[in-house]
């Protein structure tokens, strides 16, 4: 070998490709305060929009008087539904096949609903003008409980009166939205009725909110001279926004450019289309000036994108020795005033049918009833694939309840029911094909790491000490084993508003051997600019540091469905690898030509093509890139670029095993997380540093949801948790140090075997923290208590168990 | 209730501008001076995304009126380092993956800067307590704490070497 | 969240502040650190046409320790309290309590005067000042008067201070008693679910003096004479702590909120009071 050729391992290291803890390229700008978030954008002549919102949860709007507001100097316009109606924009379609008021049309259906949109020269004037808009309401009876809603004579959605069928089939009542059924009802019920052991439980997964630190916002700019509409905004799916904007406005899609700048966290909040976006677009069209709309925190928590709010009732059956035979689940889903859930079209309850979890359950049935109430619309997937935290919480609680019923250790019950490694690909009773897994190995590794047996002994000692009156602190060992379903998804069954859920990557190699790749996704902190370059570096042999990743501009990026549901790596990551392989295929032809051998006589070696058997004869990718642009190669087009639209053949199924050790003060309800161990298997690991960061963050969001974070309403439909005083976002002080671990079971169908990881810790974390609370009280007879497990609810549990003497 | 002249020294540069008294410091910095590092997160002084250093104290600039800040000396994340010479905290946040979406980062770093001025050698617990006025939704804080402890160690080593 | 317009004043002496207060009456309000008032103004729940910023008044600053006599200017921040070494020696309960208020940034701005004067039942300093038997100096057009912290609070946001008066200084006598400020809250930045300040000194093997006060367990801070009485003369054994706790509980009247219903708050209050007393005793 040529002495000048660096060692292979040095060349691999130089690429900073897959598997290395590459430092993030995004961080230079963020650490210097040079991020480019939506509210940083200032355009010449820009106006500011602000909403008049309903103080009532249910009321008729009798009149709206905008005169005083319009008289305020600096106020340009005040839009109401009447102004939007001629454009047919006073209502808009939702992602779930329903429609939603953009501005109150005759009545309001939730507190905080948008009633009028004030446009002014600056945000202070706009805020003053909001106070001057006089709205006369006649309040109506409020329904905040979905069960009551289904019995009530009050028609919430008068616009749907008489419609006995909706986007997802028949409606059973005027406040009912849909029934979604999966699985074999009759067989499941028969199996459970005849089973040796049956456990039943009802549980409420409370309403909460993704609450990214940056709220939602947009700047719409209609250039009337050129007929172009540019919409900047906090969009997790910019291309879909462009299509929707075109369909709604009638502006041809090529005349609309959507730009997602840096996004300050999404977690599902920024998937939907909100009235603020529509109003800023209309206002810009009306005024001919750019219009900015940025929601404040209260507006964010009250009006955009709640998550969960699932009332779940389960029955699970097993043999006496603990082999699960059947699972029955019914969900009453509170969707609020409009069904604006962000799910693939054919899945009105998302992937709730992953609720058989990690277990080989032969028979199962799921039914979900969606219901209207006087609460905010939304129903987004808060740091999870569609409704997967609900599903995993459900099954992981049912397992615990079954363990109590069987008087069996919950870790052992899981072990004997796991899908075995040799069963993959595994066909679940509710219709999914799990791609790969090795659950027993992961579980054993986790239990060993925490010394599970030792913990149980310590817990038994603690219980004994508690009974003797020597301590008032109990110890809970929370277990969870989760299987996620991410990477939506195959176009044959996944779409958003008709757009198949493929994703895309376009790669362009520059003459000097650096590159740019553009994707249909958009990072909100996940580090795409870092990790996608790593995938490409390994695939095409150009150092990651020489590859720019660009997303979020629909004028330049290929069409994609965006980033949510941990779909970026499974779908766009695959597209990136596939585009890279197309580049490599062409590079091989160029290399063979340059080396004067047949195409089949060269092979790829890290960063170059070498002649087989003669590694001293090679052309680096930089050589090849230059040749692609500077010389005529017979039979080969100039240039070196490729695009891939990747339609995944299946979802990917990351999994993991979590253990939480929690101490609970029985007298005050105060919890202390002593230890948290998280083992994740996300298949091939692209950047371990980024993966760990995702785990820490997802676990912390899980902790928040379990220990106190909720959107609570009073009986009048008032939001009780509208600021961060009451809406729980933990600080560094309330969060433990996590231990992370992993196994690697690649996805067999993904080009690089990666599965997606961003949401796993949330999905697995919620049942784990919650099970720790339950486990602490199990010796005293607790079966189930609803989240959030804040101080007072834990105290109530202890009190109900007679632990306060 | 007109505008008044507000004098601010921001990152060493003196500014004199007209503002309504009610204008919030965060808006003056962001809108009038184009200093967009500090962000608006919660608006009720809970999240700390708007943290700047004012007269040697970490403050939430969403809860300070422009008029109140008249005469103040202010440092934002933009004033801590330069692209060619990053502050150690900026380096360590990059090195230890102390950020994800980046929205809280300017406030975090600015607050950490003041914390290390007051306590150059903090324990992990002191870092967690001292940073409790800044919320991050992405990182779970683990790597933020790590970054700050690493920065403290670097700064201390540099101080010792200088002595 | 944008506040309404207001006229801003930054007087450099107390007289200047009083002049604006006198001129505009109810339309004027003084602001110390602003971290209670500004959020309310941003939510437009407080309308303040004339805002008097006290930061320019030098005579409102400073901590003076003269033997056991301690005087704290109203504009002293929580951070100043925490950082003041002399005060930490003389009255360590102040530091212990201040560290449990809000977060670092808020403590840099939030002042003792603002905390005691605005009458928010969630604030920690009022109960603490009642425990210390502090006096508040009030200055008005008619001169200066002192009101005991234990007599100052009338109802939520209603105090003995006249609208045209300024709370300028807090004075108390440090005792060297065992101390504790015990607070349960949901998270950093939260008000207390229940909090209790206790100061206890021994006289031989008996308790010689005891002062117990509570935060956020009524619409005003609650100093419980009966709780102190139950302790004085006892050895501070479990029975005495229980008697004192029961006495203190008889004096509170919490309301339900997002932290939990009344029943829960009363129970937690009992635990917190007992712990505060026990910890103060352990330091007595």
From TrEMBL, chain A:
GO terms for molecular function: carbon-monoxide oxygenase activity. SMART domains: Ald_Xan_dh_C. Its EC number is 1.2.5.3. Residues 32-141 form the Aldehyde oxidase/xanthine dehydrogenase a/b hammerhead domain. InterPro entries: Ald_Oxase/Xan_DH_a/b, Ald_Oxase/Xan_DH_a/b_sf, Ald_Oxase/xanthine_DH-like, AldOxase/xan_DH_MoCoBD1, AldOxase/xan_DH_MoCoBD2, AldOxase/xan_DH_Mopterin-bd_sf, CO_Mo_DH_lsu. Pfam families: Ald_Xan_dh_C, MoCoBD_1, MoCoBD_2. It comes from the Bacteria. Gene3D superfamilies: Aldehyde oxidase/xanthine dehydrogenase, a/b hammerhead, Aldehyde oxidase/xanthine dehydrogenase, molybdopterin binding domain. Keywords: Molybdenum, Oxidoreductase. This is Aerobic carbon-monoxide dehydrogenase large subunit.
Automatic annotation (TrEMBL), chain B:
SUPFAM superfamilies: 2Fe-2S ferredoxin-like (SSF54292), CO dehydrogenase ISP C-domain like (SSF47741). InterPro entries: 2Fe-2S-bd (IPR002888), 2Fe-2S-bd_dom_sf (IPR036884), 2Fe-2S_ferredoxin-like_sf (IPR036010), 2Fe-2S_ferredoxin-type (IPR001041), Beta-grasp_dom_sf (IPR012675), Diverse_Oxidoreductases (IPR051452). Keywords: 2Fe-2S, Iron, Iron-sulfur, Metal-binding, Oxidoreductase. The keyword Metal-binding applies. The keyword Transcription regulation does not apply. Residues 4-80 form the 2Fe-2S ferredoxin-type domain. It comes from the Bacteria. This is (2Fe-2S)-binding protein. It comes from Sedimentitalea xiamensis.
UniProtKB/TrEMBL annotation, chain C:
It comes from the Bacteria. PROSITE patterns: FAD_PCMH (PS51387). It holds the Pfam family CO_deh_flav_C. Keywords: FAD, Flavoprotein, Oxidoreductase. Residues 1-177 form the FAD-binding PCMH-type domain. InterPro entries: CO_DH_flav_C, CO_DH_flav_C_dom_sf, Diverse_Substr_Oxidored, FAD-bd_PCMH, FAD-bd_PCMH-like_sf, FAD-bd_PCMH_sub1, FAD-bd_PCMH_sub2, Mopterin_DH_FAD-bd. This is Xanthine dehydrogenase family protein subunit M. It comes from Sedimentitalea xiamensis.
